[in-house]
């Protein structure tokens, strides 16, 4: 996309924010968030595991395509999962800040076939590959937009991925941003989540801000700018910082919040000998922050399975040096696109995205169900999946796809359990 059109894009973004993205489909059909009951997920047994090794990601670089996943078509040849396998896969690992790791077995109650767990056949919604005129990425340059909903619910991880705020203190992201299927990645040990905020007046070198009466403590957030954080290339960041501070306009900066614990489904953790596994379906993780963020979050949802997904949206922090003079990673990038192929668990799409957008929350807009007859509900965005990036899939002739994991009722029940820990709050959606 031509970057000289940033202003136009900004205006477009403004229009989107005001009127919403009213695609044809969204306009003409009565797309509504439907209520459905959920299976109940209960913890059965938790055991302590050994401390992870925190491998360096580099060890795994065996070239593209070295690790292939079983994709939509490949999975349709697998036998349906029985209940005990589902329970195994929905078990989960928790890793705490101090490196302690536990595994929890779960049991599922009230599991219906219609809940869409067992059947994972590709739906007959294959569309022609199309390039839409408006397809592409929108760099949200204006801080007024980038620091407000919905773009502000997109967060950045210190490992370089993106994520989405789904509660005041929970971030949904891709599992492979913290765990490669075998072990936790080096960067997951001291994980932090960055939100873009307008910099207010600096105090005492900008390291601390008054923490709402929490005087003595270390402030509500880890309030350090991106530029002050170590990582890949301190010098470069310092240079950015100098450039940034020379700018007259107020630029939003990242405020970093510490992660207290991470959770990944057992389905993502590869058994030793699994040529054909469903692990791409479970490429999601939930991060719990130490303290809640004062930021509007986006609710989780389950996309109705009765109608094909027309259009999905997501915002993230693409690590794309071509964007904005190499400073793309400090800007939230928004895009929408159509889904080309979907199953209950996966979506293939043609959204433009670079690596840093991995983990971004994929959302759709539907109308809320309304009690009053005759009245249309309000449009509401909900996160219905996680963008998991460009992946190599074992799937007929084509092998590489842009993939997103879809939240099914059972996955919703699991994530809801992680957020609330109270089954009574996760009975229906
Ligand atoms: C399962 O089906 C029964 C009857 O059809 C229904 O009452 C129940 O709410 C369903 N449970 C779930 C989790 O969908
Ligand atoms: C690590 O943290 C967890 C959760 O706070 C706690 O249960 C566990 O005892 C801690 N382990 C060590 C070795 O400190």
From TrEMBL:
Region (Disordered): 199-251
InterPro entries: Glutamyl_endopeptidase, Peptidase_S1_PA, Peptidase_S1_PA_chymotrypsin, Trypsin_dom, TRYPSIN_HIS
GO annotation, biological process: proteolysis
Record-annotated Peptidase S1 domain positions: 131-424
Cellular component GO terms held in the UniProt record: extracellular region
Comp. bias intervals (Basic residues): 199-217
Cell compartments where the protein resides: Secreted
The protein's name: Inactive serine protease 35
Organism of derivation: Sphaeramia orbicularis (orbiculate cardinalfish)
Signal peptide span: 1-23
Protein family membership: Belongs to the peptidase S1 family.
Lineage top rank: taxon: Eukaryota
Keywords: Glycoprotein, Secreted, Serine protease homolog, Signal
Keyword Transmembrane helix annotated: no
